Amino acid sequence: MRANHHLRLRGSVWFFQIKIPADLRQHYKSRAVVAETLGTSDLIEARIKRTIKLTAYEKDFSRLRKDGVDLARDMTREIAELELEEYELLRRDPWRAAVEPDPKEYGLSRAKHDDDFRIFAATKAHNRFTANQPAPPPVRRTEPVDNYLNGFLAAKEFSVQHASKSKSAVLRLKAWMEVQGMAATVGNVTRELAGDYMQTVPGTRKTRVNIAGLLSSYFRYIVSPLHKLDKNPFEGLAGDLEGNAKVIVKRDYRDDEIQKLLSGGKAEMVETIRVLLLSGLRASELCAMTVADSAHDEEADRRVFRVHGGPDDVTRKAKTLSSKRVVPVHTDIDGIVSARCEGKAAGGLLFPEWHGKANALGQRFAEHRLARHVDDTRPGEKQSRIDLHSTRRSFAARAMAAYASGVGSFTPWTVADVLGHDREVQVLPMTKKYAGLSPMKERIACVEAVRLPS
Fold first, then answer.
1. H-helix or E-strand spanning residue 40
2. Where would a tag sit more exposed on the chain, N or C end, judged by fewer CB atoms within 10 A?
């Protein structure tokens, strides 16, 4: 092969170009030639990327000739993607179906340039929507693995160092997939592939766990309601990795540990712990809570915690899109919240002792916990298995125990709503989405079902 074969320079950027064999062109939208940018102006780098792409295309050609499978663009997949898109449009704007009740006519109205795929998909979506059937199942994504990387880094506002590590982790995964001769697309990153990849990452188990965490965070962003990937292939993968380092499995607090945490110490610390245990709030959420956020709510007929953040709040960043929520105030902490709100300005912090910083609370809490001999640091481990976040684990564990015993009229989904967990990563996410947010009475029942030891 000539040194620059399959390479074309356009402006200052190198492109990969390949001629599609005549007998396979129907699989590539009848194109005789395919050209793809290599995203570099460096000739040496372009040659390396050219070789990777050429290998992938040659493997595709071989497979297509062998069994007729369309690896480049499956018409069935394209129609499925369009149907899901059309269904979501109808779900957001149901009046469209009412204005044009005939499915075929609606499909024709949605088509552009006699697009038969669009007509067929819109017609199917109209039939499904008007019959009150659920949305079509999600389809495998065809975007490049790093397609959402810039949006992910911008949304998370990482430090320069953390952003660099996250970017490197995603790009290394993409490069590995290309070397393996497969299309480096989001949809091709399965759980099995994720496991295979992580076993090839060099270094100690701790290194692989860190990289698995970075990739899990990125794919969790893609799983979000905004992007609708069906599951996170790296979720919980760290626990399956082998190596020298140990993973510390955190847990909730036992009754005797809670009693020790709530006995003695400064009043503001004891009140903070009690509120966290009976609300399920994150430490950062409680530290940012204002008097106005803790006001009486007419629907709940009681005080509530209004947790802010999310895409419409540029001042307070939420951990997930589901973090923005309303949590009923437990009867046992209503007195604490009411006393702390009395006489304060609406914008004042509910717990000004922590100056709005979870780190300040975390340091003081660690001192409080150790002073009461509440610890679970095991031989060979550098971290305790119980920490400030274990108050939230304790709320979840006690709420689920109450549900299992038949106490209160609420479901596990209610617990997820109170905790502000992403619906898309819960069990049966599509069913949860249609069920909608748990009613206020269920959230109240969930909160009140949590009990602390006397």
1. none
2. C
Q: Going by C-beta distance under 8 Å and a sequence separation of 6 or more, which residues neighbour residue 129?
A: 87, 90, 91, 94, 97
Name the residue among 28, 57, 423 with its Cα closest to residue 224.
Answer: 423
Per residue in 327-339, is it b (16+ CB within 10 Å) or e — as a string?
Answer: bbbbebbeebbee
Q: Among candidates 228, 199, 197, 196, which has minimal Cα distance to 424?
A: 228
Can you tell me whether residue 306 is helix, strand or coil? strand
Residue 12 sits at φ, ψ, to 5 deg, of -110, 5
pLDDT confidence bin for 320, thresholds 50/70/90: low
pLDDT given at position 215: 93
What number of other Cβ atoms are within 10 A of residue 11's Cβ?
7
Q: How far apart are CA 433 and CA 435, in angstroms?
A: 5
CA distance 314 to 42: 39
pLDDT for 10 equals 87
Q: Which two tokens stand for residue 391?
A: 């108050």
**Predicted pLDDT at 137:** 66
What's the pLDDT at 257? Answer: 94
Phi, psi of 161 (to 5 degrees): -65, -45
pLDDT of residue 429: 46
Distance CA 375, CA 332 (A): 26
d(CA 442, CA 377): 37
DSSP, res 307:
E
Query: How many other C-beta atoms are found inside a 10 Å radius of the C-beta of residue 187?
Result: 16
Distance in angstroms (rounded) separating the CA atoms of residues 397 and 444: 17
Specify whether the CB–CB gap between 38 and 14 falls below 8 A. yes
Q: Is 321 helix (H, G, I), strand (E, B) or coil?
A: coil
Strand-pair category, 302-307 with 325-328: antiparallel
- Token pair listed for 159: 């430090």
CA atoms within 13 A on the CB side of 388: 22
The HSE-up count of residue 243 (CA atoms within 13 Å, CB side) is 20
The span from the CA of 134 to the CA of 436, in Å, is: 14
Contact between 330 and 359 under an 8 Å Cβ cutoff? The reply is no
The SS3 call for residue 150 is helix
Distance CA 56, CA 136 (A): 31
Q: How far apart are the first and last CA of the chain?
A: 79
Q: Who contacts 5 (Cβ-Cβ below 8 Å, separation ≥6)?
A: none
